[in-house]
Amino acid sequence: MDPLSASGILAQFLLRFLPVWVALALTFGLSIPFKRRLGLYGKLFDSPVGMIGFFLVMFWVYTAVFASLIVTHDPLDQIARLKNAWPGAAVPPGEQGYPWYIFGGDSLARDVFSRMVKGAQLVLVIAPAATAVAYTVGITLGLPAGYYGGRSDGVLTFLANLVLAFPVILLFYLLVTPAIRQTGLPMWFAGFMFLIPIAFVVVLINSRFHTQPPKRNLYAGIALVIGLWLYAGAAFDADPLGIVSLDANKLNIFVAVVFVNSPTVFRIVRGLTLDIKSRDYVAAAQTRGEGPWYIMMWEILPNARGPLIVDFCLRIGYTTILLGTLGFFGLGFSPESPDWGSTINAGRKLLSIYPYPAFVPALALMSMVLGLNLLADGLREESLRD
Amino acid sequence: MLKFLVRRLALMLLTALCLTFVVFALTNLHPNLVKLAKTQASARMTDDQVVNWLQLNGYSDPLLVRYGEWLGVVPGWTGTNPETGKPMGRCVNPNAPTAPAPRYCGVVQGDWGTSTVFKQPVSQVVGVRLAATGWLMLWVLIVMIPTSLVIGILAGMREGSRLDRVLSTVSIASTATPEYVSGVVLIVLFGSTVMGFTPLFKHWGLLHEGTLLKGSAASALDGLTFDNFALPVATIALYGIGYIARMTRASMTEVMTAQYIRTARLKGVSFAQVVLRHALRNALIAPFTVIMLQIPWLLNGVVITETLFNYKGFGWALVSAAEGNDIELLLGCSVVAVVIVLLTQLISDIGYVYLNPRIRLS
Fold it and tell me: What are the helix and strand counts (H, E) for chain B?
């Protein structure tokens, strides 16, 4: 095979992403006609900025979903003659599989394109999940802190400010190390931290349905079973069904990222609660005799959703940046991991001579975070409109 | 005002104490100490030798006692060197072991300890590296503040205009680009021999050798030039510009809808005059706070950028200390970091009150 020309590279690139284009076309084709009936999600399609952001985000989501269809080579396979190869380099005759390295080869002769795609999968699993856990932690602590105030609020705020006073990178260097993993600290930390989402859901259900015990028991029971199953798998790698598992490295990363993110969420939720708790509908609920957790979970939280949804989008982007930072400093991820931060780190040594291995994941990370930021901006604009 | 300052300073002290204790506890976990022993003495030590080494060098006392030693409220450990029979200890000068040594030597006494990676006093390492980073920060601020304010004001003076849309998108793009990405992109564009502008300029005959700008700032320690410093400065500034510009824009759009601006316009004052003389002063109060609060964030960028561009400043020292588990240097670095964070917060609070007479400190 001959090496690809510039237009050939573009054509092959577009062709490989065919499943993503089809899925994107379906998403947009189905959403736009019904946008009036889809609430905030539908309104997104009224704002060009929001639509571009949504496009970029969904592009990476579908890339992660269809990653095994898109990759051209195994992300760990090496073809020695394609070490530091230029984009579009042809695989030498005799080798099996796809005939080109679309975006060239890295310093270990692996396919840059496939590693970028596999990296998307890794980022898109960890970043939203870690952000969601950070959110439940921040909400569960921030709501009572803002609602009750007093000494516990003072202590929690001090702790949040303490974590925020740490330079993030120092925190990562202290928390994401083999030494820490040896002590088992991340596991116990996760054991505590992952209980909070379960407690959150159970309290949410209980505060709503505690007057109807059969219904409450059913819903809380379902939530507990699912929650504890995920808990066993995620925190202790002990899922009886063997579906959910998180190895020690990833657990360590996950815990560190949640730990860095939750104090900010806590501060946002606390501030919103302080603002909302003086509203009339909260006073009405208090007069009705509703319990404090009902007021927090079902009166205050739904009314704080606008800023929280916007911040959630931004925060997934920020978490992606944090994961990249971890990879960039070679912390946590195994050296051959295809995540974007690690590949940028591996490629930066030869950056001025062989730019592609670092350039491609850098652009990928940038486009995804940009998409999330634009999406958040579109959501903010549309939710402020009415 | 005085009461406020005293309370804030006390809180600052408490935060610094808690923070350094956490750093101390985490760096003194047993596996970390084993690593330290192996890097300091020899990599092929047996477990017994490691325990011995730790005991001999004062690492085996209880954690709280040793934290007290570092603080200078507990007497430093002492012992004798089994090989030479001379006294050893925290406060003993290793070059003159028989000289009389003070009982306490910690932060309270002004002794920040010795770096195990650089083999120098911590205060000296931190001082030298902080000065190098100071230059970097100075240029970042010189570039970042005017650029972001101009972008924010231009975008905010006519909300919804095409200029506003373009500039807002640019600011979003810049906040979405972390330093390790923009650094890579900038090096590829300006500092690569095979891609970006350098081959183009060579083709046009404008450049004969080397690259347009240097992709490494290692030579900047001997002398700052545009060549070796432009890319790191741009890398850090780029991430901050977007955020400050967006805050400035928000503040500017709010001011532009105020009654007194409309009055001024109706009086017949020209638009440029309204922006420059009426709106600007009030619109710049919020960005001042944002800029001050952005400085601790820059610290993060500094660590990444110094690693990427191989500039041996504070961030580089922090990374070296963390990689070598250099306990006392890490503690020194975290104290510097926490002081920067809390001091900028304090300045932003006080400055806000000073700039905006409608608000009082409570």
Answer: 15, 2
